[in-house]
Amino acid sequence: MDFNVKRLTADAGIFLSRAVQFTGEILGQAEKTELDAHLETLLARAEYTKLWTERIMKQTEVLLQPNPNVRIEEFLYEKLEKKVSMRANNHEQLGTYMIDSGHEFGPGTAYGNALIKCGETERQIGGAEREFIQSSANNFLTPFRNFIEGDFQTISRERKFLQNRRLDLDVTKSKLKKARVAEARSAMWSEEEAQAETELRVAQSEFDQQAEITRLLLEGVSDTHAHHLHCLNEFVEAQATYYARCYQHMVDLQKKLGSFASMLSSNNNQQSSPSRASIASSPSVSPSYPSALNELPCSNTSRQARVVNDYEAAGRGELSLSANEIIMVSTAPGMDSDWLMGERGNHKGKVPISYLELLN
Known about the structure:
The chain has 360 residues and is α+β, with helices and mostly antiparallel strands. The protein has helices spanning 2-26, 37-64, 68-79, 90-105, 110-185, 190-219, 221-272, 290-294; strands at residues 303-307, 326-330, 339-344, 347-352, 356-358. The chain has a 5-stranded antiparallel sheet, with no helix packed on it. The termini are far apart. It is rod-shaped and about 130 Å long.
């Protein structure tokens, strides 16, 4: 018990001496040992490395997840070491709504089929976004966070030790100075001066040792910069891949939707033009080959057509199609303008014209 009391008393005395020294430095009443210029430069570099690493990391998190509520939820799950539920992102959710509505309107109609194609593309973009976020989190955010929560915490701890060693050094310098002044007045103080000199040598040694430890850690920030540069390259590569995939998905979707837009324009022209009243019962004009569909007679005369995309019959009376196969098509009186009668061998049924390309 006595040992613990003495230890606490000694610690309190050291803390008080440091506090007095620090206060005196602030008030300009005590001398302060300055760190060498190289060490000061390393300390400053570590500070702004930490500052900008935090800013870049936080803004990257905003970029990857703009919803602050979701970011907070993911942070809480991470702290509780629980797995975040796999929720659909915005693109995936939109794709699901489009696909469901397309099936509701009918995949055999131009609008329904277009919605399904858009929905499938939105899902693909959502998947690409998910991969981009995961790659960025693992290869970019995690190393940045490891520096803030690991390496820089160690640097801060050793820097605090260095500050304490410097205060101890300056306290012993002050004690030695006072002892020398007293010794000049009386020889009785020579023993106190010798003790102060011993304490000064010990404090100087501990300060130099801690300064070296701190310097080595601070010089390691150069390796951190090199590692973060590698992570930055991976982040840029992930972004480039993500945007390239999104662009390609949208270009492919535009090609698929081009036919639907042309077909709708053709239907609108037919409804608004009196000169086309005689062909109102004929099938809609194919976007890619409008003249060929216009030439299809309103009779049972058949022509060859190539299937553009797979189509699964939605009901009795329809004919399932496989992409790139060749079938015979014809019109029939009273048939909806979005459909033709298809024939493959002994199988017959209605087929949507948006899936066909008439051949010459």
